[in-house]
Amino acid sequence: MSTSALNPKRVLAELRELAALTSDANGAQRVAWTPTWARARDWYRGKLAELPVAVEQDEAGNLWATLPGASPRALIIGSHLDSVPNGGWLDGCLGVLAGLEVLRRIAGRSTPPVTVRLVDWADEEGARFGRSLFGSSAVAGRLNLEWVSRLADADGVRLPDAVRAFGVDIATAEQAHRQIANAGAYLEMHIEQGPVLESLGLPLGAVIGCYGIERHQLVFSGVAAHAGGFPMHLRHDAFLVAARFALEVREIAKRYGGVGTNGRVRNTPGVPTAVAGECAITLDMRHIDTARLQAMVDEARAASTRIADEEGVAVTWRTIYQSPPQRFHPRLVDLCDEAIREVAGASHRMPSGPGHDAIEMAWAGVPTVMLFVQSLRGLSHNKDEDTRDDHLELAVRAFDRLADKVVAWLAT
């Protein structure tokens, strides 16, 4: 049975227990809508069974544990158990198990003044079907049912068929919105997945919001030609245009204090002895400020046109994904910063470059904040992902203190 004493070391032990159950030599394998993910959830349900909570799976596959309080107004704590293929031992599951420890501590005392709920979001990663934040988007009413109904995995299995095996009907998934009817605040803890805190020598940070994302595919169309027969000054090499463009993207991102990435490049005809007649390249730009993000994209678009004209090729753009920047609740950011300083002595306010379920809760109008813990070498989505044990314990203590502060805020 649980006691009222917070035990951060138990969180580390349970993280390692889960890793042993659902990982192999290549890392974590808890891809959503797979047997390994189901095994992780069964294990997690066993932990919840030790607590005086009601457990239910909603219409989108999210798993909720509810500790009733004196008021139905709810503090929601959340994260995700699913992982990318060959992922790390902390990404996502740290937030669920830290939340579980906070729930244990609260449940071991008298009835809380507000209801406390812990959610394991379904398919945050989008690793199998390419739709990240599946469960939280459904709760926020932003799932886009028509689009997700057409998605299929690499083996041709359709998303609606895969989720049906887990009790989810795409047609009714957004009925899960009912889960946030009484939501007063949402908290999430996560590894940073970047090198900022480590570079500052700090273990913890208060997250002010999530970057906006602009993701596009550009196609540069030149002239395919023989690699030996065509002089350099007469070529219309689509790849060279894309390469020049990628260097411009780096400089644009640096000027505006954002990030820009060209993560995928595909040449046609794609053989060693041919000049690229066509080059498709992705562009991912992110910033916490809406105006700066738009300026970055505008400059990238102008650069692509200018370079294409100089090289005698054409360029077209296709939008893949757009998500505006989302700021978190100012009062909750203050409370998170306070909790970190009380536990760790120093804090750093920072935006999140990666997306998280927290952004969907913020879009749904729920006051939201995240707490970050340092990632060693900034690694994530990688079997070598790691964080110091003492930093993880500090994070659990700070997160618990944040939960208490938010409960008191909601109760006033």
From TrEMBL:
Keyword Hydrolase (UniProt): yes
UniProt keyword Metal-binding, yes or no: yes
Coiled-coil regions listed in the entry: none
UniProt KW keywords: Hydrolase, Metal-binding, Zinc
Residues that hold Zn(2+) 1 according to the record: H80, D91, H190
Pfam families: Peptidase_M20
Binding-site residues, Zn(2+) 2: D91, E125, H381
InterPro entries: Amidase_Cbmase, Bact_exopeptidase_dim_dom, Peptidase_M20
Reported cofactor(s): Zn(2+)
UniProt remark on cofactor binding: Binds 2 Zn(2+) ions per subunit.
Any one GO molecular function term: metal ion binding
SUPFAM superfamilies for this protein: Bacterial exopeptidase dimerisation domain, Zn-dependent exopeptidases
Similarity comment: Belongs to the peptidase M20 family.
Protein name, per record: Zn-dependent hydrolase
